[in-house]
Amino acid sequence: MSIIQRIKRKTEVLKDKYFPLKEFDAATLPWIDKPNPDIAGFLKKNPPRYDVPYDMADKLRSWEQNGYVVLEKIIPEAMIDKFWGDFQELVNNPDKYDLSVRIDLDEFKPNQERNIKDFPKKALQGKYVKINDFHNSSVAGKKLMTHPYIVSFLEAIFNQKVVVMQSLVFMYGSQQPSHQDYPWVTAKIPSHLAAAWIALEDIKIDSGPLYYYIGSHKMPKFNFGSGILFKPDSTKSPLEFADYLDKKGPEMNYPKETLLIKKGDVLIWHSALAHGGSMITNPDQTRKSFVCHYSTEQALPFHRNFPAQVPVKQDYNGIAIYNNPIFPQSEDVLK
């Protein structure tokens, strides 16, 4: 990083500290989030690069109004099975791989996030497990998260070069309290964030399915006491944030909906859509899913954990994927 870039980065950090965001910056909002977006006009000038099997205009209207879209039956079963095969190889042979994993069980406190080698194999195949950035190890994961029909929609909402920010693999439901993504999954521009929830199996009601408040991406932002982003000096907790969302959603007449989609369907949601994981009523029922977060090259020109480094990147269907600098030996080991 050059001296000028270092100064610019330090200025950004100081600005964030002393003048924290209270709302998304109107100047850098994606076009679709600005008042009265001209969807027809946009698509006339910017048709999708791929021939998608859904009505793009209809999906963009849904996104603008509701804060999410469901793309039905867009992922071939063979792609999913190949990816899940890689995942099974990983958890059955953890000693062969280097990867960051988090298991939210008391027995692993205070260090619940570790290299996969440092967890018992049995725990890796159980509940409360988050496999971080498995796409870096799995070529099938890279192909899945950059499927042309996902790429097309992301390019439409951002109208910029899209980059992969992170990914998570779940075997079971998370039971995570209500939250929005932007306070934690942060780039230089918080509004330049979207997520995809790729169903790796048919989702059952007793598995702790995802829920969300329809239209909640338009609700007033929560102030953590340090602005809209959660930081070490925040005076409000994630549970207070969840309580705010669960009260504000019904108060503003945002209906709560449970996601019961099929294998090969994809939910894409807005960074400010309030969502969470329902209670698991059948502890044996899995909820296999691949959750991917995306940003833009403008907002995230570096690997999220290494802002001072020039990233090593690969291109899949026009989306940039940054190699993981922590485990360079694990990049694309599963092909």
Automatic annotation (TrEMBL):
InterPro entries the UniProt entry points to: Phytyl_CoA_dOase-like
Which residue ranges does UniProt annotate as crossing the membrane?
none
An example of a GO molecular function for this protein is: 2-oxoglutarate-dependent dioxygenase activity
Q: Which SUPFAM superfamilies match?
A: Clavaminate synthase-like (SSF51197)
Q: What are the record keywords, sorted? A: Dioxygenase, Oxidoreductase
Q: Gene3D superfamilies from the entry?
A: q2cbj1_9rhob like domain (2.60.120.620)
Question: Pfam families recorded for this chain?
Answer: PhyH
Look up the record and name the cofactor or cofactors this protein needs.
Fe(2+)
What PANTHER family does the annotation carry? Answer: ECTOINE DIOXYGENASE, PHYTANOYL-COA DIOXYGENASE DOMAIN CONTAINING 1
What is this protein's name?
Phytanoyl-CoA dioxygenase family protein
User: Could you read off the lineage of the organism from its UniProt record?
Assistant: Bacteria, Pseudomonadati, Bacteroidota, Cytophagia, Cytophagales
